[in-house]
Amino acid sequence: MRNFFKKKSVKKVLCAILSLALIEPFGVAAENVPDEEVAPGYTHIVNNQVLYTLDENYKAVVPASLSAVDSSAFAGTKKVRSFYVPEENETFKTSEDGVNLQSKDGSGLYRYASANHESNLYTLPGDVKNILNYACESAMDTTGFVVPSRVEIIGDYGFYGGGNLLRVIFDEKTAPSNLIIVGSHAFENNPNLEISLPKSVIAIGEYCFANCSNLREKATLTEEYSSVATQAGILERTSITKVPSYCFAGCPNLHYIDLPATVKVIADYAFTQCVNMDTVNFAGNTLDSIGKGAFYGNANLHKISIPEGVTSIEADTFAGCQNLNKVHLPETLTTISDNAFSNCNNIHEMNIPASVKSISPNAFANVTNLKGIDTSKNPYAAALLGRYVPPAVVTPAAVSLSASKGAVFAVGKYKYKVTAVGASSSSVMLMGYKNSKTRKAQKPRVVKVGASVKYKDFTYKVVSVRKNAFRGCKRLKKAIIGANVKAIGAKAFFGCKGIKNVVVTSKVLKKVGAGAFAKTAKKAVIKVPRSKKKVYGRILRGKGIKKIK
């Protein structure tokens, strides 16, 4: 996580978690009481301590002597309409309308009165920083909440099972949201929920949106609560690095999901049984792993393009995706595990790259139509799937032709990947050193990204540098970016502490990924063409080297 966030943000997270721990000491929650037994006169008791007694108006009267308890102790009953706390109580207070039970300083929300009737949006108290575990759980008569910008944490089961809950809105009109962490099961079992988590969120818990049967893909951010009126996806604005286990499990009407550029991990069964999901959009190329069963049973998933960096398709990942048509597998892939694509009988386009070294015999179990699976680059895969690969016929004319798109080759110390093939010209991406041995040596000390590279009598323009290409090469001294380079990937030279000079000769540079030159020498300088200094200044801003000449 430290790769994405500044020390200030990390400190804020730790302080938020600590404050949550301080106002919510360990305790044992009461067992759920059958709703029909809750009536005026009912007393809620935990560990032989009275938490409240219901009066004739279903107001929960808290004793003056009640001290701090686990917030989950207030979960279970659904008939509380308001709270009353005597002034002499040193631990708790109520909001002005009596609907919320809060810590004495107001920062912790222990419980929203479940039976409070609110047909419009209800705005939670502005002094709340932590919505504690179960705080707004089972709010059966409230259709929507507005979460103030001051809130930093939503605890486990925070808005679980609201029944009629339609919207949760984060007030970002006058100040950015401070929400950092959303707990497990936080919004689970809200059938018709519309929500977009704010940009400040860096972590969410397991089952966060599970069983939200009609969860909407995007939420409407109106001018009333947002500085910019727009439509935004559920996770699209966040900075999360992980989609946790079962996060969207059992959301049958979720048709597509937009994942932020920061996501590195999709955990086990994260999107299982999203039976109508047809598209998964990756905003970036940071993904490292997809867990087992992540898309299990998604019968209407039509296409998936797995980003470079993923090395394994785990067990059952796409099992039961019977309408999966197009699958792009990355060049970094090495393993396809048990039942990874079992019962996927409509694959029309799938490439198995040369990098794949292990395929489970059951990886394509019950798949009778294998015609759409291209194994031409991988003899091992071809043999496993019962294909015959004829030996290549090499002619003088064939040698002079460009390699096919996606082909990887080495020239000198470096490795390249063909990104485009044309009649007059073709292009490649510089991947980095050709193998671990040359990477370890880190020679030459000057990385020169040439304007072009020649391979088998064919010349390719070098148009990009792959993300993480030279990451961590501490002994490098200088980087020269060639004349045809249009893009430098994220963290391409991250952690190259010895680099003091970067020379950009390209006049066609359009994109530089996050942290491309971060953690280089403190006094490092980037030299750019004079005519491009202003434009490149914007492109290179915040990418690691501050001084641009």
What does this protein structure show overall?
By secondary structure, the chain is mainly β. The protein has a domain at 401-548: Ribonuclease Inhibitor (Leucine-rich repeat, LRR (right-handed beta-alpha superhelix)). Helix content is 7%, strand content 26%. The chain has five helices and 41 strands. The strands form ten sheets. A seven-stranded mixed beta sheet has the order 5-6-7-9-11-13-15. A hairpin with an 8-residue loop joins strand 16 and strand 17. It starts with 6 loop residues before the first helix and ends with a strand.
Brief account:
The protein is mostly beta strands and 549 residues long. A hairpin with a 2-residue loop joins strand 30 and strand 31.
